[in-house]
Amino acid sequence: MKKEDTVKLISEEGFEFVIHKNAAMVSQTIRNMLTSSGSFAETQHGVVTFPEIRTVILEKVCQYFYWSLQSASGNKTEFHIEPQLSMELMMAANYLHT
Prior knowledge:
The protein contains 5 helices and 3 strands, in the order ββαααβαα. It is α+β, with helices and mostly antiparallel strands. The protein has a single domain, classed as Potassium Channel Kv1.1, Chain A (2-Layer Sandwich), CATH 3.30.710. The chain has a 3-stranded mixed sheet with strand order 2-1-3. α4 crosses α5. The chain is globular and about 40 Å long.
């Protein structure tokens, strides 16, 4: 995978998730950050920092991005969410427009 085909998402604790750009584009918020016509750092470097999203939540969000792509291509599987993460995941999903 080429660097321009990936996006780095950084959690509150500084953990870095390098994911395929197509997966990140599942999020309308990330899509807007990466495709903006302005000279924003996210657009130029392909790095997005989420100082208010914990690592465990951002990891689950990344898993959801890939699951969403698979689901859209016809691979219908269940996406499991641990009950104790539900509230934080809903808030992150709302912010990310996913």
